[in-house]
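Q: Hi! First time doing this. I have a protein sequence and I read that you can turn it into a structure. Is that right? Here it is:
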Amino acid sequence: MLQRKTLPELIQPMDARIASVRDFIHDIKPRILQSDSIVPITDPYGPSVVDPDMRCIVVSEETKKGGDAVNSFLL
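A: Yes, that's right. Below is the predicted 3D structure, encoded as structure tokens:
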């Protein structure tokens, strides 16, 4: 999936990206991390279409179309 990203050579390894997300969430609302997890997305829909406990997905401007596709699939 990274081949189509803008400047893929600048994308950090998955472990570093997860740590950054965890740190960000800890700074804004730490209790979220007690009940929710951060999972890598390995296909366009990720676990959102198969995990009935999924409560939200976070997207960027670059991934908004994918988020819209997930919502269309689920609705």
